[in-house]
Amino acid sequence: QVEIVEPGGGPVQPGGSLTLSCTASGLPFSSAIPSWYRQAPGKEREFVASTLHGGRSTHYADVARGRFTISRDNFKSTVWLEMTNLEPDDTAVYYCNVQTYNKSEYWGQGTQVIVSS
Length: 117
Prior knowledge:
Layout: E1 3-5, E2 10-12, E3 18-25, E4 33-39, E5 46-52, E6 57-60, E7 68-73, E8 78-83, E9 92-99, E10 105-107, E11 111-115
Parallel strand pairs: 2-11
Antiparallel strand pairs: 1-3, 3-8, 4-5, 4-9, 5-6, 7-8, 9-10, 9-11
């Protein structure tokens, strides 16, 4: 049984930092492509970042490049999203997505991030 767990999230002030984590179980994580997406109120879910090839490469959306860092630990089956210099527009529900080598996709339950003073 596949499980994607995302603890963390919460309120943070503008300019602050927050790290999200996502741990997967029940799937071959080292060959998977874990990604982060987010959905702001009234908007569609959008891609934020992903890590491919076991962690040897990363890909970022323009809104994340330079401020967010995605990383992974294949032994812990965990992926992180370190977010810095947060802005109110970063307020959203952040979702972890894991795509396995056979193209199956699994989503976490989402974690709320609120950037506000």
